[in-house]
Amino acid sequence: MVGSVDFIRDIATIKGNTDSGFVAPMAVGVLNSMENAKVNVAACRELYKRRIAILIDITTRHGMTLAIEPGAGFFTLWRRPDKAFGESIKDAEYFNY
Fold first, then answer.
1. Boundaries of domain holding 42
2. Mind listing the pLDDT tens digit of every residue in the chain (97 residues)?
3. Residue 23 and residue 41: Cα distance in Å, rounded?
4. Is residue 2 one of the residues assigned to a domain?
5. Inter-residue contact 81 to 95 (CB < 8 Å)
6. What is the distance between the alpha carbons of residues 48 and 75, in angstroms, rounded to a whole number?
7. 3-class SS of residue 72
8. How many structural domains are present in the chain?
9. What's the count of helices (H) and strands (E) in the chain, helices before strands?
10. Could you tell me the pTM of the whole model?
11. Which of 67, 69, 94, 74 is nearest to 83 (CA)?
């Protein structure tokens, strides 16, 4: 995760809320979408596919290397760079500090 303290805190809140368990009304909405709005679901899938391709293109052009090619989703996993801002990165902990 990369970003400001506020951004990271917001992502942690979202993750905590989404990991809190099954919510029946949301499940009904998802099921309804899967059954009745396949065109919209496909359009959203393509939108996110294009967005992640843009992120990967920009980031790889600036020297980062994907650890694994994403199949779907919002997240990407990258290898730790050897250098950042002209400074050697000795390990992942130092990079994330």
1. 22-96
2. 777 788 888 888 888 877 777 778 888 988 888 888 888 888 988 998 899 999 999 999 988 899 998 877 778 888 888 888 888 888 877 777 6
3. 20
4. no
5. yes
6. 11
7. coil
8. 1
9. 4, 4
10. 0.56
11. 94
